Structures are given as C-alpha cells and as structure tokens.
Known about the structure:
Chain A is of the alpha/beta class.
Amino acid sequence: MPDHAPARPRVALFVTCLADTIRPRLGFAALQLLEAAGCGVEIPRAQTCCGQPAFNSGDTAGGAALARRVIAAFEGYEYIVTPSGSCAGMIRAHYVEALADDPAWLPRAKALAARTHELLSFLVDIRGWRPEGVALPATATYHDSCSGLRELGILQQPRALLREVEGLQMRPLTGNDVCCGFGGTFCIKYPAIADAIVGEKAAAIEATGADLVLGGDLGCLMNMAGALHRRGSRVRAFHAAEILAGMGGGPAIGEEA
Amino acid sequence: MTARDAILSAIAATLGPRPAASAIDAEAQALLLDLDEVRPALPPGALPDAFAARATSAKVGATLERIGALTELPARVAAYLDSHGLPAALALQQEPPLLALDWSAFTLRDTALPNEAAALGLARHGIAETGSLVFHSGPDTAVLGHFLPLHHIAVLHARDVVAHLEDYAPPPATLPRNLNLITGASGTTDIEGSYVRGAHGPRHLHIVLVGG
Amino acid sequence: MNKLSPVFKDDVKRALGDATLKLAIDRTTVTAEAKRAAALADYPQFAAARRRGTAIKEHVVENLGHYLEQFERNAVASGAVVHWAADAEDACQIVIRLCRAAGATHATRSKSMLGEEIGLPHALEAAGIERVETDLAEHIIQLAGETPSHIIWPALHKTREQVSALFKQHHADPHQTEDVGAMVESARRQLRTRFLTAEVGISGANFLLADSGAVCTVTNEGNAELTTTPPRVHIVTAGIEKLVPSLPHAWTLLRLLVRSATGADLTQYTTFHTGPKRQGDRDGPQEFHIVLVDNGRTRMLRDGLREMLRCIRCGACMNHCVVFRQIGGHAYGATYPGPMGAVLTPALEGIEKARDLPHACTLNGRCQEVCPVSIPLPTLLRGWRDKGWREGLVPQTVRSSLWAWRFLAERPALYRMGTAIAVRAMRLFRRGGWIGRMPLAGSWTRYRDLPAPPGQTFMQQLGDRNAPK
C-alpha cells in the first residue's frame, strides 16, 4: 500500500444512475471491494446523476446544475469513488468546464475533481490493493471504455486486478481501445450508426472465443451485451468489479431473473 | 475597407496589441532548439551510406548505384537505359559539370519532351534522414526535367549529402523559384488503394551517387 | 454541393446500406491506421515532435497578423502578387478575374481542399473556364461529377470497375487491360497535354513560409509541379492559417503531417515555390499570384475555435473515427468530413445548417489522440453542441427528455420514487433477463436488447445501511 494512504479513508460511493437502476449488484460489488481495501464507505443518499447527459447534449447549464448538487453531496469526503470511467471523467475533467463561469463553485469543482476516482484505478493506484481468494475458471476479454482510457488513463489497472483471479484467463481483444458506439446519448440519437459500430465490436469480441466480456463502464457493457444477445451470441458480460467481488458465478448482465 | 484591412483588423481585434517583432522572432527561434529531441536519429555510419540505405528502402523505392568519379557517369547511364530496353537518348539538364562529360554515344536534348523516356540532372544535396534529393530551379535546371520523364536519373555527390532536413535550410533570400525535394518516384494509391508508380511524374527514380 | 442537416439522416442511411462503400472505407482507413502506427513505431521522437508542432502552430495563430504581413512583404519582394479574400465568393472572383486576364480557356488544378471549400470548381465552370483536375483522385471524381469523400483520398469510394468505365468513356486513348496500372497510364496520357497547354495552373498550399514568401505544396504524384510550372500564370489559393515562420519550422510540421496522413516520412514531391520565373530560369510561370483566404477563419479565431486553426489537413482524425468508418465522407454533406469536418462545417456554414454533425459523435477522443497538433476535437464539438442548444436547435423531444431527467435528478426523493417505479414498469416488458421491445426505448431496442433491471434499485436495496446524508 502506498505510504501516504490514510489508514481508513472516508470514501463516498457514487453509484451512477445506470448501476442504481439496471445493475444494483454492481453497487454492492463496489461497496464490498472498497471495504476490502480498507475504506470506510458511505453512500450519500442525495446522489442522483452526474449531469453528463445534459452536458454532452449541449445543455451546459443543466449539467452545471447537477454538478453543483454532486459537489454539495460529496465534497465532505476524502475520496469519491465510482464504478464508471465516464462518470469519474465527468467529475474530474468536465465539472470545471461546466462551472467555468461560476466563481463560487469553480474552486469547489476543482477540489472535488482532485478527490474523485474511478473504482478499479482507485483500488490499484491509491489503495495498492489486490483481490485474494477469488476464483473464476473462465476465459474473458476486456473492453477499455473511452472516457476511462483517454480521460483517466485507465488501462493497466483492471488487468492487474483481474490477473489475481484464479483460473481466469484473459484474452486480448482486437481493438480493445476502439469505441463501442455507446457514446451516451449518441446511441439513442443515431441508433443505426451505433448499431454498425457495435456490430464490429461484437464480432471482435466473438473472435476472441472468450466466455466473457468485461469492462469498467455499464453503458458500454449494456450496449455490447445487448448487441451480442440480439445477435445470438453466447458471450456473457460482467462489470470487472463484479468478478473481483466474487460475483462471477452469478447472473451476467441480462440474466437477472 | 479592403479585404486585407478587414482581415487584419479582425485579427487585431481578437488578439489585441502585438508584441515587438523581435520578441515574436525570438519565440519562433526558440521553437527550433534541441532538434534532436524532435527528429529521427540516423543510423551510425557515413552519411552517404545512410542516404543510400534510405533512398533504396521500400518506403522510398529509388534505385541507386555508386561510382568513384563523375567521368564514369555516361557509361553507367548507358547501361541503365539498356537494362530498361531504352535507346541511348536523354534529356540532359544543362549543368556545366554534366555538359563537360563525354556523351558522344548519346542523342541528347536540352529540354525534356512531354513524353520523354529519360532525363538526367544534378542534385544539389541529398538528405540522409529521408533519402531525399534537393534540386533548385535555375538557368541550368528546368523543373520539368524532374517531372516529365518516365525515368528520372539523378546524380549526387557524396560530399553533398547532409544528415537532416534542417541541415538543408537555405537563407530565405536565396531560395530559388522552385525548390524541389524529391523522395522516390511518383506514385498513387487513389484507385482501390492499389499502389501504382508513375502517376504523372516519373515511374523510376535512379540515383547515381558519386564518390564517398 | 453542400447539402446539410435535414438530409443527414438520409445520407447516413444510404451510406450504412452501401456494402461496397464500407469495403472501400475499411481498405483506406485500416491501411492508413496501420501505416501511421508503423511510422510512429519508427519515430520515437514523435511525441516530442507533436508537442513542438503544436507549439509552432499555436505561436503562429497567436501572432497571425504579424506573420500574414511578413509573408505578404516577402512574397511581394520575390515577385509574387498577393491578394486578400474575405470570403469564398471574393476568392473565386479574384481567381476568375486572373484567369480571364490570362485569356485562359482551361486551367489545370492540383488538389486543394481550400479550393473545394470556396466552391472554385463550380465558379470556374460558371465562368466558362474549363477546369482540369490533375490529382488522379480529383480527376476521377471530376469525371464522375462528384465531390471528394476524404481529404487525402478523395476517390476512396470509387471501385476500380467504376474508374475503368469513367476512363473508357472520357479518355482519348484509354487502357486496354483492366489492371490499375494500365488505368493510371491512361490518366497520365490523357492529362499530359492538358498540363502543358494550360494558360493557368491553380494550386493550394500546405504551408506558407512567412520569412521568404514561399508556398509549399506536397504531393505523391508530381502533379503540383506539372500544374504550376508550364502555364504562364500560377495561382495559389490558401487559407490564412497555413502560415509557418520559416522553412525549418515547416520541416517539423512536415514530419508530423506525412506520417499522420500516409505513414511515409515525406511525400515524394515537396516543393517550395518562391515568386514567378526569374531571369534566366529555364521554366516557370511569368506570373505568380497568391490568394489569401479568410472565409470564416478570423471568426473562428474570435469565437473560441482558435485551436482548429492549427489543423494541417492530415486526415488522421477521420481515419481513426468510428463514425467516419461507418458512414464515409459524403454523408457529412460538406467539404470536410470526419471529426475535423464536424468542427469546421458549423464554422463555415453556420451551426443551424450543420446542426447534426457535432452530435453524430461518441466523444470517444481517439481523434484528439491521433491529431498531430493536439486539437481538442471533442471539446470543440461539445462547444458546438452548447451553441446549438442555446440557439434552440435541439429537437423539442430531446429538450423535454433532458428537462424531465434534470427535474427528477434535482429532487432526490422524487428521483428515488421515479426510478423505483420505472424499474418495475420496465420489468413488465422482459423476457428472461432481457427486454426486446419497449415503448420509449425504440431507438435502443430496434437494434439491440436491453438488460431488464431487477425489481428494486440499488438505493432501495441499500435500505438504511450506512449513515444517510
């Protein structure tokens, strides 16, 4: 563990709207992992959405309004951790853009940004943590979501964690760093283009012959899993945090009864 | 208000008052420091060798032969043309060192025809970094002599090879009408990505490297 | 020529259904990506060169007035005539006037995206001056009556069969065999006399060198020199952002440009044109005209798009863009496609006409990563989305959905209730763990399945666990 890491930091978990509604078990996985990594985790009840849909649609004021709420709800903690590169990226990289013209909130946005982390990179880079005693005999391939990769530099950390899962064999994905076509509102506004993009991604995933596709962002995972399933694929999708939390034996995305 | 005035005043309105020209120049010059940080290193060894290797690499695709002295040139050119099934006829750039050679076996033209088979000229420099040849337009050198023929034969003295692009940077006031940097033969991938040589310019670039 | 927004979705649909186009796009972009990667692997200094190139371009933009004046001074001193054009129409009128003064019946052109941008092909035709495109791809699309679909490979969308048919129809002495080499030879024959008999040659400029007034053109075919040397008049059309301080600065940028575009170290022909034919020169144009074109660039400088003025037109962004790779260049409906086109087109044509382009993007950031001069394309695109929002260009359905979402998201208690109800409602449509069809989710479910949520949200399941805040 890095020397500077506090003994038991106070971490606020930002669950994300997608995990809250579509995949609650991811929230519990995140909670479990953070506690295993020695954090005291709280879940501010005032949390809703990070504001990215508005911000990326051009509604900067709407994004700013939600940013203020997130800042107010989370700024009392040592760290804010979220199981999503895209939400973490929003808070770290874009809150300062949304609040650029707000002298009261801009410093608070900067302060929050500095303390906000995506989950998998937090576990590795800040907590120096690795899973122990987790096993999953399966083959898997990993998709690197764009925000996490390019805004936050998340590439090695998920692999370092998954390497510790006994029996799990990772297979490289051709074009692991190529966008899956989710793009938040993009796949709703331009579904035909998004479908063409995810079709290539699905083909690449199937070409690995892996049982599972893993990633760090639910939006991408839902997009890929939904496309794979519609195409009759047997590949199953999990968030990497779920595997690390020992939930790999449970229902994959789209298998919740 | 002229377009010139409109454009310059629009720029001034956005950028505000200008720094002194000397300050701007100083900043520009600072961007040319530490060039080895920003450009490829050359392989160790003599510059002419590095140039030859680069020029004949697959990326550049020129052919190259080396001769000891310029007097050997006409014989080599005759051999080159013969190997391509061409007669000993040539458009010769009017550089005095070339004119002084023995071309008695050749039919010479001083200007390249539109469908010229072969033309020969003397390059001022070679650049080892890229395998490029440098030509200047002038009284002795027609630009079209490098572009019209199917076979472009270029003579280069080994002593005129420099290491990097920046090592060839004539003072602005001395630039010729046309400074041609030629790196390989004409080519295109415009039809289905298929690489074809001789799109408009020469299909073959043959370099004769003298000395070194 | 420029048909925008209302037809974007139709153009996209047509492009997505065109399997031949997709083959062509893949062939071009996948090759370009591989070649660029190989070039970078051979050039460990690339990252440092990119920082330097970015700094050079930033420096020029920050001192644009200074460099424009210096360029003009030196160009005039070398014997060039410098013209200034505020917009596309001005620029075309200057070119036409010069062509008429030269008594031009036909003018050869080497590739210039700026020329496309200002509508020069159309203006020449309207003025009765025969336009002879000499870049092979531009020649092909001229014969086909089309516009470029990529800034480096304008004819990537044409098959060899289509090219063969065009050449057989239009060339005086076309190819006899169906191989690409024979077709290229046919074009070489066809254009040779045109090069040598044109009264005017029109080129673009890749760089304008301020300290000498020189114009740099780069080609792989050699058509720029054949276009600009034989005629009596050489006209250059160039955007005002093409300036660099000097030749050594151009070298840094050329190292970035060519690797990013084609993966080579340098284009086959890199030529610097300084003034007209000099006393004693064996060839060259008697007159050398440079038309400096604004056409929205000073507006971009003013309106927060200054970084876009760094663009050196390499095409790397579109080669790596997942959207371009599906829809190709024509679907963008404008001169410039791909990410750089999505930023430029609203600047050149107005956000109202080009409203779709900034949104037809996942903001994945690969374009910015491969841009040799570090243009923050996703940030600029989001900036256009912001502008579009403020000008009321976003469809009402989207505004309403986002308003409803914000309304809920600002009220946590209501949000909890709303999401709890929504997940239960969604479950009504599930089969097993998936939803194949659901009202309000048509955009998603038309193409892919939606994972069905479990019966309770995370927050519901959490209950009273942990200190509430």
